[in-house]
Every structure is written in C-alpha cells, then in structure tokens.
Amino acid sequence: MAQPIKTALIYGSTRQGRFCDTVVDWIIRELGDRGDFALDPIDPAVFDPGDSAAMAELKARLGAAQAFIVVTPEYNHGYPAPLKALIDSVREEWQAKPVAFVSYGGISGGLRAVEQLRQVFAELHAVTIRDSVSFANARSRFDESGNPLDREPASKALALMAARLSWWATALTAARDASPYGAVTA
Asked: Which 3 state secondary structure label does DSSP give 94?
C-alpha cells in the first residue's frame, strides 16, 4: 500500500457554536477508516496571526501537506474572513497542490462560498477539485451523533471527492518531485 496522502483538513469557521466541528468530525470518521489519507486538522481559531511561532507552525503544516480539504460554511453569500486570513497567511505552500471542498449552509449548501474560494485558490496556483460535498440546511441534515441523516449519498459524494483528490495529490506530488513548481520560469 502506498503512503497515506498528507492532507490538511481546514476548518472554515471560527464562530462560537459553529457547525463546522460536526462536519469535520464526520469527515475524519469517514476518511480515517480508509487509510489512504493522513488528516491534519487545522483550525484557524487556534492560530494567532500575531504569534510568529504559531504562524511558523501553520506554515510548516500547510507546506508538508500534499492536499487540502477545506470545510467552509457560507455566510452572507461568501466564505468567512478567518478562512481568508488563513489562506492569505502563506503563498508557496498552496502551489501545485489540490484543494477539495466540503461546504454547508442554508439553501445553497455553501456552494457560493466554494465558487469564490475556487477563484482565490486559482490565484495561488492551486488546483481545485470539481467534485465536492455540500450540505444544504446543514443543521437539519445531521443526527444527534453527528452523522448525516441521509448517509449513503453523503458518503458516496465524499468517496468520489476523496478519490479525485487522491488522484490529483499523487499526480501533483510526482510532478513537484520531478520539477519543483517554484523553479518553473519563463
């Protein structure tokens, strides 16, 4: 078996009482059993942008990742400011790596936030995965144990997204190993 893909699992919300924890915990349960991903949960709520040691740790963890899963809510048709601050805190660490999305929210399920994030990650030279997981009216879609009420479609969507993320992570890791992205010039 190949080495598990080092994957940063990024919380998109820092709000008190956030639903993000429920979604992240579900992802960890689902993907943790597969063995092909080594998940590193990264919570912007615990990183102080003014603390140089904490920011160095964040940079190292994002730099070590071969892939990213961003779990984002949609607030007012967009993604949260703390997520943008985390994204903007580094640059090269995102380059030539795949980013997948799991979103949640009201009627749109966070899809408008994801579409905005695709533009941000394109600017950072990251590759976004088309297949994603979305939970409309999320708080009513999970049971008290933190599992989707309609488990099969959610698990299938996550499995497809993970398979695509794995493919891209493997391909882009090999490409970066063969020719570092930062060395590409005109």
From this structure: helix
Q: How many CA atoms lie within 13 A of 183 on its CB side?
A: 6
In the chain, which ranges are E strands?
5-11, 37-42, 67-73, 98-105, 127-128, 133-136
Closest CA to 46 of 7, 20, 76: 20
H helix intervals, 14-150: 20-32, 52-64, 81-88, 111-123
Query: Would the pTM count as exceeding 0.85?
Result: yes
- What lies within 8 Å, CB to CB, of 96 at 6+ separation is 125, 126, 127, 172, 175, 176, 181
Taking the C-alpha atoms of residue 111 and residue 15, their distance in angstroms, rounded to an integer, is 19
For 72-108, the pLDDT digits (tens) are 999 999 999 999 999 999 999 999 999 999 999 999 9
**pLDDT, tens digit, for every residue of 44-73?**
999 888 899 999 999 999 999 999 999 999
Q: Exposed/middle/buried for 89, CB within 10 Å: 0-12, 13-18, 19+?
A: middle
